[in-house]
Amino acid sequence: MKSDSRIYVAGHTGLVGSAIIRMLQRHDYSGLITSSSREWDLRRQDDVERFFHVNQPEYVFLAAAKVGGIGANNTYPGQFIYDNLMIQSNVIHAAHKSGVKKLVFLGSSCIYPKLCEQPIREEYLMTGSLEPTNDAYAVAKIAGIKMCQAYRTEYGLNAISVMPTNLYGPNDNFDLETSHVLPALIRKLEAGKNHGMSEEDGAAESSVTLWGDGSPRREFLHVDDLAEACLACMRSYDDPDPINVGTGEDIQISELAALIAEVVGFSGEIKWDTSKPNGTPRKVLSVDKIKSLGWSPQIDLRSGIESTYEWYKANACE
Ligand SMILES: NC(=O)c1ccc[n+]([C@@H]2O[C@H](COP(=O)([O-])OP(=O)(O)OC[C@H]3O[C@@H](n4cnc5c(N)ncnc54)[C@H](OP(=O)(O)O)[C@@H]3O)[C@@H](O)[C@H]2O)c1
After folding, report:
1. Considering only CA atoms, which residue is closest to atom 24 of ligand 1?
2. Is residue 63 in contact with ligand 1, taking CB distance under 6 Å?
């Protein structure tokens, strides 16, 4: 990519897309192209083909998607499979038709089997059953990987697939109906703290109830680290097989809740609602491949949570 290449970031208002925009600006790329979802609905093939015709992007980061936590995935599997299949199929096809030089497709670690060996290596894809609470979304993402591979084989499109672990950071979704675990914990524990402080004697402890039993282990990567990994892949990864991006380190959800409670200053009781699903028991990615490109995460979990909490208070806190 040259500094004035025409680079389209699809999904630039989201967690990942906005981090990719910040990263490209930090690296002095000037030819950034974005599309407003109000004007260009990427589920509509006509919109996408017109957009590519008008803007002629040379490079594409495909970070537009319908995304959500366990609750949203479980409740709206139809929307998750439809929106994602449509968005990715339209964008990858238009990229091929308009002669894009390279496309980076953002997938997700939920593509891997629910009970696969840990850490999860890229070759474990399609070696077992998916986690049922988000299998519609995962199947759409697997179709995206296959489409990138098929368009590479048949048409020579240089399309690669990047599989990030759980992400967090500025511009995350803090809506409790649809959010992922880390932003949901920030919001709930902050709200619990404020509720406790509003009690008459000022010392009343509130309690906060969280989903599951707190036992699952998960990996979390700051989205600014992911954006740098996407650039490393755009510059020097040209393999049809997906590439994982994560820290390679996991933490128990109950430990994460305790860490976030400390950061936001919540000192009440954390209760667990075991009637709610836990999801996959453990998920940590093997990151050997991405590290071989010279990338490694730079933001540790505590400081990433601290800065995300500051962003939440300044931008999203009600
Ligand atoms: N968040 C995570 O923890 C995580 C983890 C692993 C992988 N990923 C992957 O990273 C990618 C981006 O996720 P994210 O967390 O950044 O999601 P996000 O914050 O929800 O952002 C989604 C973006 O897609 C756009 N979009 C959605 N539907 C659209 C449509 N029909 N037409 C045009 N634009 C549309 C949204 O635009 P509007 O805001 O205008 O609707 C928004 O800019 C996804 O492929 C996801 O699978 C995310």
Report:
1. 64
2. yes
Q: Is 24 in the pocket of ligand 1 (CB under 6 A)?
A: no
Please give the distance, rounded to the nearest whole angstrom, from the Cα atom of residue 99 to the centre of ligand 1.
24
Rg over alpha carbons for the chain, rounded to the nearest Å, is: 20
Q: Are 225 and 165 in contact (CB under 8 A)?
A: no
Residue 200 has φ and ψ, to the nearest 5°, of: -55, -45
* Residue 148, token pair as written in the block: 């990138």
Distance, in Å, from the CA atom of 282 to the CA atom of 251, rounded to the nearest integer, reads 9
Model confidence over 26-69: pLDDT tens digits?
999 999 999 989 999 999 999 999 999 999 999 999 999 999 87
Catalogue all structural domains in the chain, each as residue range(s) with its CATH number: 7-172+220-249+284-299 (3.40.50.720)
- Is residue 111 a contact partner of residue 145, using CB atoms and an 8 Å limit? yes
Q: What is the pTM of this model?
A: 0.95
